[in-house]
Amino acid sequence: MRYLIAVASASALAGSALGGLVGGVASFTSLAGFYQDAPTIAKYPSDWITFVTSEDLAGFGNGSSYSSLSGGSGWNQWVLTATKGTMSVNKGVAIANNVGAGLMFDLGPALGNSGSGLHGFGADFGFLDANGKRVAGTVELMLSTGDALVTEISPMSSFAGFWSLDAGVTITGMMLRPLGTAGENYRATVDNLYFGFAGVPAPGAVALLGMAGAVSARRRRR
Description:
mainly beta; 11-stranded antiparallel sheet; 7-stranded mixed sheet
């Protein structure tokens, strides 16, 4: 397992001798950095584009108990499960019902042999104590690439995410594991999922997403 140092932006990466970049993966604790900066330091082909879409959990019923949640389609399809027990959803926030349970994301596959597909993934994470109050806690986020990040989650929830900067490596999964007090006393939460595409999309796909207002797209320049 390779452990990353979380950074807010690409400039922070450069300023810290790529401190948040190990083995072709960058970690971010700033949503702005996740959207804007990671593609600028990526090793993608010059004809690739990058964009980010997001999805909330507001469509799932409040107060219900779920063995899994799922959404997206194709490159940004996802399935969320708890590592122990079930989950509930309250006002668009998924909550592990068991104290100390982790959260597991199974994510979309690569598109063909080109490497196009899910190169970025992140979410807003949080913790609830026994009284349902939001509290701070420490988590380990483990990526399908073998990279990991240990970071502190604030009481109001915090963004954390990754980009795979290698054109040949997509992200197929991520697991959140509560550490320390969080693992002993708190329930993990997640909402607002973010998906970063890199590659050559199907004709018309970017235009359609742009019309829906869901995309921040850019063509990589050298």
